[in-house]
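Usage

Read records sequentially. Each one opens with the input sequence:
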Amino acid sequence: MGKTITRVDLTGVVSDQVSLSRAEAADLVEQVLAEVSAALASGETVKLSGFGVLTVRHKNERVGRNPKTGVVVPIEPRRSLTFSASPLLITRINGGTPKPRARRLRKEPLLAQSATE
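and closes with the structure output:
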């Protein structure tokens, strides 16, 4: 099993990559996580391109059953968090190299087309 990445690990990477002090990097990591948490708490979807999408789902009240005793227990309505990995992340996880995205060609402006006609 692999290592677990912690906030301290993220702070270290940010500090090294962006040339910030550890305290500034820790503050930056905390701000990003707080912003993502606040967006999810308010019911928004968070999309991180190349990584995935975090979505809040609303689950209605339902009836559950205790498997040991068979007693019926109501399960309260709640919100749950789901994560859908991007195709790019899935490719990386499976050891492949992601293909570069095709770039869209810009269409020429209408004025340039009419001038050549």
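Summary fields computed downstream for this record:
- The first strand starts at residue 46 and ends at 48.
- The longest helix spans residues 22-41.
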